[in-house]
Specification:
It is a single chain. The chain is an alpha+beta fold. Helix content is 31%, strand content 37%. It has a four-stranded antiparallel sheet. The protein is elongated and about 70 Å long.
């Protein structure tokens, strides 16, 4: 009987961890949304700088529950081409690679707060995608 209760308790702890990390009070009437910010770039330093600014701004200035930056696997695009354009001579090859780095940040807040959080200077090499999911529906 003891292993069954352990599994039930472990499942309950898992559900608590996976629930949205906010509690709505009676006087708080603004709808909460799960906001996912996806950042993509070739330059890791620029990407990490933007992630650090977003997370710090949401946690320190707005005191929002924030998860991230979650580092997604790096995509490596490789291209192998012949050095000689005519095809004559020895078969020598050049290899080119392009790495695409991706980070995901999750916030739980009202949608209008996202505009205030994302008012930072973002490098032109960093692509930002914002997805808003309604939790109340």
């Amino acid at each position: 009987p003891q292993p069954i209760t352990f599994l039930v308790q472990a499942n309950q702890r898992h559900k608590q961890r996976m629930a949205a990390p906010y509690k709505k009070t009676g006087e708080d009437t603004a709808p909460f949304h799960k906001i996912t910010i996806t950042l993509t770039a070739h330059n890791v330093r620029a990407l990490e700088k933007v992630c650090h600014q977003l997370v710090n701004r949401s946690k320190t200035q707005y005191h929002l529950p924030t998860k991230g930056p979650i580092r997604m696997p790096t995509k490596t695009l490789s291209l192998t081409v012949r050095k000689a354009p005519s095809g004559n001579g020895t078969a020598t090859w050049d290899k080119f690679e392009m790495k695409i780095h991706k980070r995901v940040i999750r916030l739980w807040c009202a949608p209008d707060a996202v505009r205030n959080i994302t008012k930072i200077e973002i490098s032109p090499s960093v692509e930002v995608e914002v997805t808003i999911d309604n939790l109340d529906a």
